[in-house]
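Can't paste images in this forum, so I'm doing it all in text. The chain is below; anyone willing to post the predicted structure tokens underneath?
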Amino acid sequence: MWTPRPSRRIVSPAPATLLLRLLLLAGAANAAPPLVGVSPQDEAYFATQVIACRDGSGSFPRSRLNDGYCDCADGTDEPGTSACPEGKFYCRNIGDTPRLLFSSFVNDKICDCCDGSDEYESGIHCQNTCRNIKYIAEAADGGSDLSVTHLDANTNEFMGKHAIAMEDHIQNNNSKDLVQKIRGLRMALVFELGLLVCIFAFCIARRRTRTRRRQHILKRK
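Text version of the structure:
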């Protein structure tokens, strides 16, 4: 005797379960801030939920990483912002030489990293000028110490670059001030000339009036 096979039923997860999964995924995505300004060698250091300041002054939760507020005196918690004066920003410069910047160079509207990663919130567009060089072999021979030494050697280059940029900015401002001063001098000269003409015309008119009065008095006598 033939008996029908029981039909397979596909059990879908309850709506509450789906909602819970979505919330967990969203929370996991928001709980991991981007590691901006962090070198690949230091990514593991920032992987924990509570991160210690490198100078031993305290610790901070991972949610405060790159939040724009300085929690560590040495800038451990702000590698990707300019909030900490002692902070350092790491330019990955894929294909070129990695570099280390002072935190004051981040989002200052001057492109310092050849990949433009230091100006991610300044509102300007930095073109990727990184050269495709074989830096991996050099880094493999010397390790991370070679990279750090090479980065520290380029500090003067960046300071010079910013000094030149500041000088250009000052020169532009001085040029604008000079133009405004020249315009002000011109207006002052025109005003003074007009005033002198008015005084001269007033003096001539007054002299003529006096001359006429004298002539009139002499005629009456």
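The chain has three helices and four strands. The CA atoms of residues 111 and 126 lie 6 Å apart.
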